[in-house]
Request: fold
Amino acid sequence: MNATTFSALAEPNRLDIIELLRDGPMPVGEIADRLELHQPQASKHLRVLSDAGLVEVQPVANKRIYKLCPQPFLEMDEWLDSFRRAWEERFDRLDDYLRELQGMEKKPDNGGK
Amino acid sequence: MNATTFSALAEPNRLDIIELLRDGPMPVGEIADRLELHQPQASKHLRVLSDAGLVEVQPVANKRIYKLCPQPFLEMDEWLDSFRRAWEERFDRLDDYLRELQGMEKKPDNGGK
DNA sequence: TTCGAATATTCCTGTAAAGGAATATCCGCA
DNA sequence: TGCGGATATTCCTTTACAGGAATATTCGAA
Reply:
């Protein structure tokens, strides 16, 4: 999992853009309008999102339509999966760690008693 | 979905910490050792992660054991869900947008036919 | 080719955040 | 109560990044 993806989503306006694009592809102007951003800032944020591979652009006439790219989302999903799995087994296993500590020290195996 | 979560994960070292904690709770010293961080930086990153609600601390003797908090991950999962759903219906529907454009123009309502 | 709409880029400034080094704090124990 | 290990905090400096304003670029149409 790449920190770049999170970095791109860390900025509130960019997160808003992503969530807006969830409803479908959209040209820059409309994005700026809906989110009440100045056009240059919208373009700049879209640039960052694009560099991070989160969105993709497709020119139509004199507009540039931006849309989401699925892959980073899929990667995030797989990443979350690894945590889900860890959860099931050793979730809150603080005691596991404590047990490790005990083992580390001189304490000899007391035969389970 | 909160940008704070992404912000916390946007820093490579913090992302490493999170992935390290996936294997179980761990005291600061061990985290610092394994990731080759200086202890103060480790503490500082853990502070950020803690403020973001991604980790939780539990004191044991003179150590402080950090562990993951499930909730932000669950929230991220739900968030991803909203995209998965959007995918299924209107994924790449660029043509939807183009159709909208057409509709916007003089094209009269055709009676829902 | 010229014009205008739509969009991208540049320059500037303020600010938030990260690492390094030093230091403070906390806690169990002798 | 004082000590030492473990951890947190502070101060400082450097750098990355966001917004504002102005400007450059692109593309289609006349």
Observations:
- Residues 104-113 of chain B have pLDDT under 50 and may be disordered.
- The radius of gyration of chain B is 23 Å.
- Residues 70-90 of chain B form the longest helix (21 residues).
